[in-house]
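User: Need the bound-state model for flavin mononucleotide:
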Amino acid sequence: MPNLLIYYNTKTGNTELMAKAVEEGAKKVQGVEVTLTFHAEPQDLQNADTIIIGVPTYNHHMSLDIQNALQKTAESGINLKDKVGAAFGSYGWSGEAPKQVLEILKNKFQMKNLDTPVLSNYRPDEETLDKCRELSRKIAEELT
Ligand SMILES: Cc1cc2nc3c(=O)[nH]c(=O)nc-3n(C[C@H](O)[C@H](O)[C@H](O)COP(=O)(O)O)c2cc1C
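Assistant: Bound-state model below.
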């Protein structure tokens, strides 16, 4: 069965609310195994067919956990080429982190289908949560 990994980080819970909506959206599609995790090793990224990363912006940057995981994956020589990727995240005023993650997935790992990230200004409202559900539902449908 194709699988979809949702790997996220959060400090105050806003990106976690988004991550749970992303999980809900993906689970609407039959025949796709969905994993939601706060911690991923390079091997977990390698084993996933699709990787959706949730990352808040702190100090104009992605959180260190996500940065370290991507760094470790690159150093391990793991090949993520042609896997489907996406990103989302909560922010306060600048919101660079999801774009930075997509840039790395695209340029370093040569992943594909990298849609515009779903962003939430602080706590996601219902409309933003729907965008999260829609993002993952579309991607999960493409996997089947
Ligand atoms: C110390 C600190 C630094 C922050 N730096 C930024 C920033 O550079 N750009 C931005 O858009 N938001 C920034 N924020 C706001 C967070 O991105 C925002 O609170 C977000 O909702 C946190 O997501 P989380 O609840 O998933 O951790 C910062 C917040 C704190 C506390």
